[in-house]
Amino acid sequence: MTIGSLNKRIDIQAQTKTTDGAGGFTTVVWVSVLPTGTKIAAAIWPVSANEVIQAQAATLITTHRIRIRYRSVMKSGWRIVYGARNFNIVSIVNPNMDCKWLDILCKEAG
Question: For the chain, what are the domain ranges?
């Protein structure tokens, strides 16, 4: 894998808690975990596509593999944003356990 293969610029987001106005909290806001205006380099490959019926409508669920340089802070509850597309992180793999790359398996619903 060469650095030139990382030709996409992505943002990484996490859910944050916001007040609901009644003294409680609700998690509906996605906020970037990167410094403001920062994007990181990534490579994105489609892995599979599957059509399922949800709420009496056909929904296409596409899975992708996204590779980035190693970051120790990545969590599986976060999401990756590439342009107008959102990828929910399902699993994070550190190939060969050498802390050079992360392969992130994601689901994109559309």
Answer: 3-109
pTM (two decimals)? 0.80
Rounded CA-CA distance 37/50 in Å is: 34
Please give the CATH number for the structural domain made up of 3-109. Answer: 2.40.10.270
Residues in the chain, overall count = 110
CA atoms within 13 A on the CB side of 53: 1
pLDDT at 68 over 90: yes
Q: How buried is 48 (Cβ within 10 angstroms: 0-12 exposed, 13-18 middle, 19+ buried)?
A: exposed
Tally of CA atoms within 13 A in the half-sphere of 54 that contains its CB: 8
Task: Tell how far CA 41 is from the center of its chain.
Answer: 13
